[in-house]
């Protein structure tokens, strides 16, 4: 979990004007059509954005031992927020309409010269803009939320303010947003308040709470999780090693140097003479202390497998062929399980939700006989006998 910046957003997405997204344009033959500026999302973009939102909520809080994310030179909130708003806002709109259709579909939302614009008009316009497949995806999300709400009611579970704030904190952390103030500023540019954003995050938070409730971990599960990740996730101070290396460009060169080392040649001397790493060769190949997540994976795996004073064989990595020697070790400082039990529980559920959440939701829908009526049934495949052309009868002799 030391590479939290792997989810850093790219800047291809720009802030869009909220008024453009919600502008209604009269059409003489159709009534009212809805224009959502710059938000004609393809189905795959919808799915990716929804996944990003859920992943941000489910992302584990970085433990003290983890390296801090690299600071971004651009405003990541300006990149992330409009995408999250676009997906959640439309889903929330559909949720309200489809949950209470008799009350809300006929609600008038705008008037002009004797013409009334109802929620049903907006819903119809959105479906036309999206296309059937994408609109069907939003119907799935809406139905899922209605199902989740009913399950939460049965279990007596209510979303608390701290649950919403935890989701906000996870989104800020995963997108390098420093504070609530930075998030608020980005939201304001998109025409939304922080409180409004929290309200629209509520369905995702409810989904996670229901998952946690229906997938409870035993004490043995939590202890096993702690043992597995105590070094990488829960150490108050991570393990570090001090290592030196000699870098060569070919395996033959590296094997020749390794033979000299095994024959008793001094490691630092050979590093100065033959290493092709200009940054460390003058120091005898010394790289100083480093933890996991700093070096490339091949080098790191080999280096951390060595004890103090041990030397590797020839290690192939991205930059070439290495011979590594560990000269010192600072062991990780691991807290007692009872001292970090709540952190272990949070991390366990967050990881399980990330890996198993979608399959669990699909099973929940299946168990409740869910069917999206917008999805057309697949045409039955033609049988082999139907597809095969009739064989010619043998000629009579």
From TrEMBL:
Keywords: Isomerase, Membrane, Rotamase, Transmembrane, Transmembrane helix
Domain PpiC: 238-328
Pfam families given in the database record: Rotamase_3, SurA_N_3
PROSITE patterns for the chain: PPIC_PPIASE_1 (PS01096), PPIC_PPIASE_2 (PS50198)
SUPFAM superfamilies: FKBP-like, Triger factor/SurA peptide-binding domain-like
Listed transmembrane segments: 80-98
Region (Disordered) location: 1-45
UniProt KW Transmembrane helix keyword: yes
A GO MF term: peptidyl-prolyl cis-trans isomerase activity
Compositional bias per record (Basic and acidic residues), positions renumbered to this chain: 1-14
InterPro entries named among the record's database cross-references: PPIase_dom_sf (IPR046357), PPIase_PpiC (IPR000297), PPIase_PpiC_CS (IPR023058), PrsA_foldase (IPR050245), Trigger_fact/SurA_dom_sf (IPR027304)
Biased composition (Acidic residues): 18-33
PANTHER family: PEPTIDYL-PROLYL CIS-TRANS ISOMERASE HP_0175-RELATED (PTHR47245:SF2), PEPTIDYLPROLYL ISOMERASE (PTHR47245)
Record protein name field: PpiC domain-containing protein
Organism: Cohnella endophytica
């Amino acid at each position: 979990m030391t590479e939290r910046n792997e989810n850093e957003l790219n800047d291809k997405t720009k802030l869009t004007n909220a008024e453009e997204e919600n502008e209604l344009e009269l059409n003489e033959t159709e009534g009212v059509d809805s224009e959502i500026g710059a938000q004609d999302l393809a189905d795959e973009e919808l799915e990716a954005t929804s996944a990003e939102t859920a992943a941000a909520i489910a992302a584990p809080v970085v433990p003290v031992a983890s390296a801090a994310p690299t600071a971004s030179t651009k405003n990541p909130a300006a990149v992330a927020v409009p995408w999250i708003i676009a997906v959640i806002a439309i889903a929330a709109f559909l949720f309200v309409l489809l949950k209470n259709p008799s009350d809300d579909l006929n609600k008038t939302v705008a008037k002009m010269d004797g013409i009334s614009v109802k929620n049903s008009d907006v819903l119809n316009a959105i479906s036309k803009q999206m296309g059937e497949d994408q609109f069907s995806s939003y119907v799935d999300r809406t139905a899922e939320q209605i199902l989740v709400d009913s399950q939460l009611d049965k279990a007596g579970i209510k979303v608390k303010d701290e649950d919403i704030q935890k989701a906000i904190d996870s989104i800020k952390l995963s997108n390098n947003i420093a504070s609530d103030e930075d998030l608020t500023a980005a939201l304001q540019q998109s025409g939304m308040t922080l409180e409004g954003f929290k309200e629209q995050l509520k369905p995702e938070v409810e989904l996670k709470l229901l998952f946690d409730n229906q997938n409870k971990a035993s004490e043995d599960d939590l202890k096993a999780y702690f043992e597995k990740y105590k070094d990488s996730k829960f150490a108050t101070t991570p393990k570090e090693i001090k290592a030196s290396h000699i870098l060569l460009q070919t395996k033959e060169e590296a094997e020749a140097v390794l033979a000299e080392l095994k024959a008793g040649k001094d490691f630092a001397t050979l590093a100065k003479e033959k290493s092709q790493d200009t940054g460390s060769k003058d120091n005898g190949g010394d790289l100083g202390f480093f933890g996991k997540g700093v070096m490339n994976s091949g080098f790191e795996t080999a280096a951390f497998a060595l004890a103090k004073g041990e030397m590797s064989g020839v290690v192939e990595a991205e930059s070439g062929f290495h011979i590594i020697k560990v000269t010192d070790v600072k062991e990780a400082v691991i807290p007692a399980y009872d001292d970090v039990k709540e952190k272990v529980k949070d991390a366990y559920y967050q990881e399980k939700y990330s890996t198993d959440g979608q399959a669990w939701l699909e099973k929940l829908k299946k168990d409740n006989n869910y069917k999206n009526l917008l999805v057309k049934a697949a045409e039955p495949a033609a049988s082999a006998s139907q597809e095969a052309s009739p064989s010619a009868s043998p000629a009579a002799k």
